C-alpha cells in the first residue's frame, strides 16, 4: 500500500479507493443496520410523525456532513504524523514538541491514552453490534428462527476470530467488492423509498433539525444518542489513513459511501413516514423476495466491518508496545508484502471473549448501541483536544482560529457524548469500565518501566571507566562478537557487568545496542543506525524504529555490515538481562501498581523473541531488582 505522502494516480488511486471502501468504511458503512432502530420515536414510545422523521433525518444529514465530511475527511486527515493518523499518532506529535507547558502536555497525553483505551471498547462493540444487527434480519426473513439470532451471531464471531491467525491478505481482496455491493444495494433501495415519498428530501434543510431541537427540547437533545450511530467509524477512518493516504479515502467517501448512506437513511425515513408502525425500517424497506439476499449481503458487510476493527486493534496494540504503554506481545506478520498486516494472539482472544460476552449480555443490537455511543463520542472529543494542540503548535494556527474550529468540533462532540451518557445504566458503563481497565494497565506499565529504568541507571558504570578497567586488568578477550541489549547506551549495562564478574572474559568485539522508538511511524534505513566506535573493540549502536515497526536485530547486524562493522550471526552471542522484580523497594509506585507491574512483566513476551534473536545464540543473566 502507498503511504499517504505519495499521491496515487489513475489505476493505483482506483485500487486503493476500492480497498479503502472495505477497510476504512466497514464500520460506518454498516450503521444503517442498527442506527435508526428507535431514532424516529426516541426512547419514549411516541409514534413517528412527519415532524419527528424530518427532524431526525436532518440531524443525520448534517451530522454526517459536519463530523465525517468536514471534521475527519476535510480537516483531521491533514493532521498526520509522517503519513500515519489516529489518536496515538496525534500523541506522538505532541510528545515530540519541546515547547509548551509540561503539565499541560502530560494532561493531554493522559487524555489521549484514555482515548486509545476507548478504542479497544470500540473494537469489542463493533463486531458484536454489526454482526448482531445483520443477523437480526432473521426476524423478517425467517421469524421462526429468531430465537437463534444470538447463537448464530456468536458462531459467526468465533469463526471470524479463529480465522485471524491466517491473516487478512486473501480475504482482504474481497473487502472492496463486498462493500461496493453493499453500498450499491442500500443506495438502490433507498432511492426506491425516496421515489415513493420525495417530500422526505426536504430534510436536507437544516431548519428541520433546528426546529426539532427548539420544539422537542430535552427529547430533541437525547435523540442525539441514536443519531450518533450514523457517524461511528470516523476514528477508524482517521486511524487507517497510513494504509491508503488521504486522497483514496476522500474519493471513496464522497464518491460512494456518503451518497449511499444518505440515500438509505432517507429511504428508511420515507418508509417510516408512510408506515409509522415499522420497527425495523432497514429490512422492512426491501420487498419480501429480496429479504434473504439482503440478509446475506448485510452479514457479509458486517463481517468486513468487524475485520477492519479487529485489525485496527492489532495495529493500535503494536503502536502502544513501541511507545512503551503496553508490555511486549506476540506480533506475527501474516503477509510477505504488506507490513501492516499483523496478528496478535493475546489481543485476538481477549477481543473474542469480550465480544461474546457483549452479545450474550446485551442480546440485541438496540441494547448494544447504548454502549457503542459512549465509546465513539468519548474518543471523538479527546481527538479534538489533541488536534487543537497540534494545530496550534505544529501548524501555527492563530489562537482565534484554533478556538473557532476546535470549539465547533468540541461542542458537537460533547453534545453527542452528553446525549449518550444518560444511557450509562443501560450499557454506557461498559466501554467506560473497559477503557478504565485498559488505561490502568497502560499507565502502570509506563510508570513501572520508567521507575525500573531509573533504578538500573543508578547501577550503571560509565563505559569509559569500564574500558580502562578491562585494559588495566588485562581481561582475556575471546573470539567473536558479543551484543549486549540495553535500554540506554549512557553507560555499561548491568548485564555486561554481571557477565564480566562471573565469566571474567570479554569478546574481542563488543556491541552495546539500544533499540529506541522514534515519534514517527517508520524510519528509513539511512536514519536507522547511529554507530560510534570506542577503544578496545567496543562499539555503541543506537537503532531507531518507528512506532509502526517491529524491531529486528539480525536485520540491524546486516545493515551494520554494509557500513563496515561486520558481525556474523553464527559467531555472535546476544546477552539479555532477565530481571526478577521485587515489590520491596522504595519507588513511588503504590503497592497495587507494583504488584500489577510485576504480573505484567512476568507475562510479557520474552525479549529474545520480540527482538527476533536466534534462540541458540542468546545468553540471559538474571538479577533481582527492588522496585
Descriptive account of the structure:
Helix content is 59%, strand content 9%. The protein has helices at residues 10-23, 26-29, 50-75, 87-95, 102-135, 138-141, 149-162, 175-196, 206-216, 218-222, 224-227, 234-239, 241-244, 246-274, 281-284, 291-322, 345-362, 365-393, 399-421, 429-458, 463-473, 494-503, 553-561, 591-603, 607-610, and strands at residues 332-333, 342-343, 477-485, 506-517, 529-533, 538-545, 572-582, 618-626. It folds into two domains: 12-447, Up-down Bundle (Amino acid/polyamine transporter I); 461-626, no CATH class. The radius of gyration is 27 Å and the shape is elongated. Residues 1-6 have low confidence and may be disordered. 46% of the residues are buried. The chain starts with 9 loop residues before the first helix and ends with a strand. By secondary structure, it is of the alpha/beta class. The strands form two sheets. A six-stranded mixed beta sheet has the order 5-6-4-3-7-8, sandwiched between helices. Helix 18 (365-393) runs antiparallel to helix 19 (399-421) and helix 20 packs across helix 24 (591-603).
